[in-house]
Write a structure and sequence with these properties.
alpha/beta; Glucose Oxidase, domain 1; Rossmann fold; 2 domains; two-stranded parallel sheet; 9 strands; about 20% helix; about 20% strand
Length: about 260
């Protein structure tokens, strides 16, 4: 059964009381470069449906292809690790003439981060400064639903600790090494030691980089909803949701730090 696209795409313009899209994880557009599926549904059935997946992608200029043996494609990735790919409509005479866009050579965080600060739930407390490295809107919703004010700032924003009670560093794409400006700002807050800091995914890697750790690109990445994670203090195993291609090298931890989860 064609699970991809069978719910269709809901209203892009529907907003909640804080001005956040109700049905999407970002304000506008599609954040993938392309979509490859085995089968796509062109007759969605859901009470919120406004348009098909194909029509939505076409409207945003995002290419897609169906009728692909995605199991065979997955096997290639499993055997070779993360590899570059490209959608072509017909096989060229000279396959070696094809060029590939390597996203790891770009500053993906700068591309997807907001360009100027935005405030959500302005009268809320505590006041959270969220560095946007590729943030999902549900993270803002989690804060404001608990009464907090969120100041969403660009990835290279100059932080003023007098303007927030806690610092949140979001998830995001790409290599942590590229985000030198973000790391500099994190180091400034760490040095003062007065404000709590929380990093998720890329944000955690940037926090680790700020204390002197090294990161590395994983062959496959950790991607899934049920990945085991062991707590170093108790040995207790937690099932976690992860989607990242880089990891922190625990051997590079400074002497006064130790791993919490592995």
């Amino acid at each position: 059964y064609p699970l991809i696209g069978n719910y269709g795409v809901p209203d892009e313009k529907e907003l909640d009381e804080h001005g956040l899209p109700v049905n999407f994880e970002w304000f506008e557009g599609i954040t993938v470069a392309a979509l490859v599926v085995g089968e796509v549904c062109e007759s969605p059935s859901h009470w919120r449906t406004q348009q098909t997946l194909s029509r939505w992608m076409e409207g945003h200029g995002v290419p897609g292809i169906s009728g692909i043996d995605t199991r065979a494609l997955t096997k290639k990735i499993r055997e070779n690790g993360s590899i570059l790919g490209r959608i072509v409509y017909e096989l060229p005479t000279n396959v070696r003439s094809l060029t590939f866009n390597d996203p790891n050579k770009r500053n993906l965080v700068a591309e997807c981060s907001v360009k100027k600060p935005q405030v959500f739930n302005a009268t809320g407390t505590p006041r959270i400064c969220a560095i946007d490295c590729g943030l999902k809107l549900n993270q803002i919703k989690c804060f404001v639903s608990r009464g907090a004010r969120v100041d969403l700032v660009p990835w290279n924003y100059s932080l003023n600790e007098q303007e927030f009670d806690g610092l949140f560093i979001s998830n995001g794409p790409g290599d942590p090494v590229v985000c030198k400006d973000t790391v500099t700002q994190i180091q400034k807050v760490l040095k003062n030691g007065k404000k709590p800091i929380f990093g998720i995914c890329l944000g955690h890697q940037l926090l680790a980089t700020a204390i002197g750790c090294k990161t590395y690109k994983m062959k496959y990445g950790n991607r899934g909803h049920n990945l085991p994670c062991v707590h170093s203090g108790t040995g207790r195993c937690f099932m976690t949701s992860q989607n990242h291609g880089f990891a922190v090298d625990s051997d590079s931890l400074p002497a006064e730090w130790e791993p919490l989860f592995t």
